Amino acid sequence: MATDKPITRERILRILDAQAEKTARAIAGLDEATLNLPARDDGWTAKEILAHMAWGHGAMLALAQGRVSIDKISGAFDLDAQNEAERQRTRDLPLADVLALLDEARQKVRTYVGDVGEADLNQIVRTPWMGDHPQGQFLIYPALHEGGHRAELEKWRATLGEEA
């Protein structure tokens, strides 16, 4: 995400909030039965994608906070296997619980962004699959991750004959 705009806490929060609003619009008016329909060719349902967004926020926050040792997860770490394990863990949750998990995960990221010092935004976050990034840039990634999956949901919703 190359930009000339400085990365500030306020900008990160605006990006996170804008993405949450777009996701809310993407699923507005859809009931649990509809969100339990496959939304991707690999069989993931829309509700599973929403739960995945929550897990993604939490995982990226853990990396940003240094709660996950890069040495512990590099090398043998299998992101696809981890995603599938999380999918299995959350697949039977009611929609209300999935949405609560996503809201909670977003709030934890927001709280961390609000508390981090401006100077800390330049500290490097190391990841096994995304390389190294300044924390300010990295803290935008939960929104970018959500946005990619939100776009999947919008495309899927269009196949239902409805516009998000």
What structural class should be given to the helix and strand makeup?
Answer: mainly alpha
Query: What portion of residues is helical?
Result: 55-70%
N to C succession of SSEs:
HHHHHHEEHH
Q: Overall pLDDT, averaged?
A: 89
Low-confidence parts, pLDDT < 50 over ≥5 residues?
A: none
Q: For the largest beta sheet, what order do the strands appear in spatially? A: 1-2
Architecture overview:
It is a single chain. With about 160 residues, the protein is mostly helical. The model has no long low-confidence stretch (mean pLDDT about 90). The protein has a single domain (about 10-160), classed as dinb family like domain (Four Helix Bundle (Hemerythrin (Met), subunit A)). The chain is globular, with a radius of gyration of 16 Å. The protein has 8 helices and 2 strands. The longest helix has 21 residues, at about 95-115. It is about 60% helix and about 5% strand.
List the helices and strands and how they pair.
Elements: H1 9-27, H2 32-35, H3 46-64, H4 70-73, H5 79-90, H6 95-115, E1 124-127, E2 131-134, H7 135-138, H8 141-159
Antiparallel strand pairs: 1-2
Helix pairs in contact: 1-6, 1-8, 3-5, 3-6, 3-8
